[in-house]
């Protein structure tokens, strides 16, 4: 595949952009692959990419029931950070964050990584203590964060109201190299690189059954027929329980709708990401000028990809306390995704009860930031047949052993 470059843009400009190639191919499925990945979201595509790049495994199909990146990967608010409390989480999220730093160069695709800084506001005494503890833990883990006072918060984000009516801003946990990236571009960049390695991305092809023989998977039944495989990777986020059900095992997670909304575009007014976990809302400004607003999950399990209406009202009402200026903005659009939430708010990466089948799910409300790290660790798990150092703590057996990686308390909200 031809490299994208300033020279290529100039060349195409001179010939009316008639020479661009398709970014990825759309082949018909073969009868068998070495590895099938179900789910062409960011995590599935990144897994395929690192299978090829790190292990030379390229006879791979990535099977997607809709369009690639059309699940949560294309629906999130794009926050990237690694300021987690527990060591295994900090390790995998920081690996991911560091891979984001060079992703555009690695993939030869501009993913618009913008390390503009992420702050998590402390608006109660309890939060101050919690975030100071996380800052100390991060120092030991090699993750660059610091606890900053209210004046520094105001300097970094002038549109904040420090003396909110219910919750004043008392400080923040600040990660200067956290930020955002263009979510679709992450999926498209990985897809292009996978296609370039000869992998098959098969869209509009739903997996409807899992064929097995003597405790091993032999292939999957799809809407395009049966496709055989030597190894199977399941990476379907909110549909993980449904796919596991087809394969005959259960996983400890719930699927709920999480939603977000954007305002009309306005002039640049905020060049950091702010998360206000006490009032529950988070805010950043996109390159187009829209204020990107994320809210909470529905209080009940569902697969609607929409979310309940009252959440929009609650989220905006809460954010207006801390950002009064947004009360004058018109909201443009709202959407939802089905997130896969585990009891300890940490992902599941590892083996399943079926010998040659592996699962990667449970990233819940916060897996966009993890895409490259998760793909890296899951590719290693599939290639070697067992998890490496990054993935090992995240096995499903932790729910049997009571060895939780509890980020529900540590992260407050796990976006
Ligand atoms: C509103 C919202 C805001 C969020 N904000 C953030 C944020 O700011 N930062 C952050 O880090 N994370 C955030 N997240 C979470 C993040 O989006 C997800 O954790 C991440 O995108 C999951 O990626 P994935 O590749 O696992 O899943 P997905 O992108 O959902 O991909 C899974 C794919 O599997 C496909 N699939 C499912 N079943 C089948 C089947 N039977 N056959 C074939 N294909 C199938 C689906 O169509 C889908 O494309 C947010 C999520 C939402 C919904």
Automatic annotation (TrEMBL):
Q: Which family does it belong to?
A: Belongs to the SoxB family.
Q: Which Gene3D superfamilies match?
A: D-Amino Acid Oxidase, subunit A, domain 2, FAD/NAD(P)-binding domain
PANTHER family with a match to the protein in the record: FAD-DEPENDENT OXIDOREDUCTASE DOMAIN-CONTAINING PROTEIN 1, SARCOSINE DEHYDROGENASE-RELATED
Show the taxonomic lineage.
Answer: Bacteria, Pseudomonadati, Pseudomonadota, Alphaproteobacteria, Rhodobacterales
Record's keyword terms, sorted: Cytoplasm, FAD, Flavoprotein, FMN, Nucleotide-binding, Oxidoreductase
What GO terms fall under cellular component here?
cytoplasm
Which protein is depicted?
Sarcosine oxidase subunit beta
Query: Where does the record place it?
Result: Cytoplasm
Q: State one molecular function term (GO).
A: nucleotide binding
- Cofactor(s) in the UniProt record: FMN; FAD
Q: Which reaction is recorded as catalysed by this protein?
A: sarcosine + O2 + H2O = formaldehyde + glycine + H2O2; sarcosine + (6S)-5,6,7,8-tetrahydrofolate + O2 = (6R)-5,10-methylene-5,6,7,8-tetrahydrofolate + glycine + H2O2
Enzyme nomenclature, EC number:
1.5.3.24
Nucleotide-binding in keyword set: yes
Q: Which InterPro entries match?
A: FAD-dep_OxRdtase, FAD/NAD-bd_sf, Rhodanese-like_dom, SoxB
């Amino acid at each position: 595949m031809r490299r994208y470059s300033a020279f290529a843009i100039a060349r195409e400009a001179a010939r009316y952009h008639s020479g661009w190639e398709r970014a990825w191919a759309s082949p018909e499925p073969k009868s068998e692959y070495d590895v099938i990945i179900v789910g062409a979201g960011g995590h599935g595509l990144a897994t395929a990419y690192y299978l090829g790049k790190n292990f030379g495994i390229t006879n791979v199909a990535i099977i997607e029931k809709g369009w690639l990146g059309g699940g949560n990967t294309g629906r999130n608010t794009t926050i990237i950070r690694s300021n987690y409390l527990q060591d295994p989480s900090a390790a995998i999220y920081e690996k991911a964050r560091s891979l984001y730093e060079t992703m555009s160069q690695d993939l030869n695709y501009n993913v618009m990584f913008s390390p503009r800084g992420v702050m998590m506001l402390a608006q109660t005494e309890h939060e101050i203590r919690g975030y100071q503890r996380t800052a100390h833990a991060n120092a030991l883990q090699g993750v660059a964060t610091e606890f900053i006072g209210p004046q520094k918060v105001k300097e970094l984000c002038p549109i904040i109201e420090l003396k909110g009516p219910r919750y004043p801003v008392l400080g923040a946990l600040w990660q200067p190299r956290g930020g955002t990236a263009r979510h679709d571009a992450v999926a498209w960049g990985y897809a292009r690189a996978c296609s370039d390695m000869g992998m098959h991305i098969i869209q509009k092809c739903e997996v409807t059954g899992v064929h097995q023989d003597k405790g091993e998977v032999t292939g999957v039944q799809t809407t395009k027929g049966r496709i055989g495989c030597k190894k199977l990777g399941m990476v379907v986020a909110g549909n993980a329980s449904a796919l596991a059900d087809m394969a005959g095992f259960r996983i400890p997670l719930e699927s709920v709708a999480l939603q977000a909304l954007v305002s009309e575009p306005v002039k640049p007014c905020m060049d950091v990401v702010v998360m206000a976990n006490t009032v529950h809302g988070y805010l950043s400004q996109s390159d187009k000028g829209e204020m990107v607003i994320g809210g909470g999950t529905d209080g009940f399990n569902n697969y609607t990809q929409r979310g309940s209406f009252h959440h929009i009202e609650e989220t905006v009402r809460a954010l207006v306390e801390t950002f009064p200026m947004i009360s004058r903005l018109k909201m443009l659009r709202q959407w939802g995704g089905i997130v896969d939430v585990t009891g300890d708010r940490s992902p599941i990466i590892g083996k399943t009860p079926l010998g040659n089948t592996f699962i990667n799910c449970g990233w819940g409300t916060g897996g966009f930031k993890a895409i490259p790290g998760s793909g890296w660790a899951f590719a290693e798990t599939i290639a070697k047949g067992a998890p490496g150092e990054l993935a090992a703590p995240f096995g499903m057996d932790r729910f049997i052993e009571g060895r939780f990686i509890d980020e529900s308390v540590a992260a407050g909200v796990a976006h």
